[in-house]
Amino acid sequence: MRVARSPRKPRIGITLGDPAGIGPEVALKAVRDPKILAAVRPVLLGPRAALEYYARRLGLASRLTFTADLVPEPGTSKIVALDTGGFSLPEIPFGQVHVECGRAALAAIRCGVALALQGALDAIVTGPIHKKSAQLAGIVGAGHTEFIAHLCGVTDVRLMLVGPRLRVIHVSAHVSLRDALDLVKRERIVRTIELGAEVLKKLGMPRPRIAVAGLNPHASDSGLFGNEEEREVGPAVAKARRAGWRVEGPLPPDTVFHRAARGEFDLVVAMYHDQGHIAAKTLSFADAVNVTAGLPIVRTSVDHGTAFDLVGRNKADPQNMKFAILLAGQMARLSVR
């Protein structure tokens, strides 16, 4: 009798984020969860000093083990970590902006991206960084997403939020609202539809139903409140349909998210950051996960910041990190043999 071999669990690299924030705490808490260990093989990526410090505070020092081969044994009770360096302070400056913390956060990201590009990791999950500390450390780009895109050698990426009731991808993200208006162009909208659909394929939706929000109130109400729908959004939807996508729009922004949350659509294309984020975070503040669409690797991220006010108090909730890890594992399984 032949026994089928089970596919191996995806190997997920988890960057700690800024050592002065809650990233190390939520990462260590998350990888203890039996649901996480049943679904993926987690590997923590960060400076040894920070990992050991937080592990001691959480009573996990005896379970932390550092490796260089990224092959945790199945069923191991150890918390597997890789020292990515970049941190030389004698003490961690809790809740403070510091160049060393930014440097350590960027070092972990560089390591995770490099290993994912090499195939040593099946996906990466990124902990929260502090923008000011990262800037002091010389980050390339406006933030986390742009830095990872730079490391991957791509420029055409989109920010996507995935929650249990709503999925939203954004035509533009971290730019001013005035600049975001200039990015509402038909080719960019079509590409956003394509990138969102590619993510949904990795989540088991080969023929997703996609709604495209209008830019203006009531999707301009036949031109009463602007002409972007007629000039850019509508033609983009028509082009996407001709390419075979199941797309509707432009739809009024004040109702489209409700319709999607009710189950009519699998994805909403939002025209700018707050249009999508307000809806997603209102419905799923604690369990929406950030996904970067358009990368050659799978990358998810927590959808919260460094929470400097919670650092060192053992009160940080790891739920969003757990959701990010599980989603990364789900997306990575298609490439795992």
Please give a structural write-up.
There is one protein chain. With 337 residues, the protein is an alpha/beta fold. It folds into 2 domains: 7-154 and 295-337, Isopropylmalate Dehydrogenase (3-Layer(aba) Sandwich); 157-292, Isopropylmalate Dehydrogenase (3-Layer(aba) Sandwich). Helices cover 39% and strands 16% of the residues. It has helices at residues 23-30, 34-39, 48-57, 99-118, 131-136, 144-152, 177-182, 186-202, 228-242, 253-261, 273-283, 319-332; strands spanning 11-15, 41-46, 64-66, 79-83, 123-126, 158-162, 167-170, 209-213, 246-251, 267-270, 289-293, 299-301. A 12-stranded mixed β-sheet has the order 3-4-2-1-5-12-11-6-7-10-8-9, with helices on both faces. Helix 8 crosses helix 9 (228-242). The longest helix is centred in the N-terminal third of the chain and has 20 residues, at 99-118. The chain is elongated, with a radius of gyration of 21 Å. The two termini are 22 Å apart. The model is unreliable at 1-6 (pLDDT under 50).
How much β-strand is present in the residues?
A: 15-25%
- Could you say which structural class the secondary elements and strand pairing correspond to? alpha/beta
The best one-word shape is elongated
In CATH, the architecture of the largest domain is 3-Layer(aba) Sandwich
CATH structural class of the largest domain? Alpha Beta
Quote the distance from N terminus to C terminus: 22 Å
With strands numbered from the N-terminus, the spatial order across the biggest sheet is 3-4-2-1-5-12-11-6-7-10-8-9
Domain count, please report it: 2
**Uncertain parts:** 1-6
Number of helical stretches of at least 4 residues: 12
Number of strand segments: 12
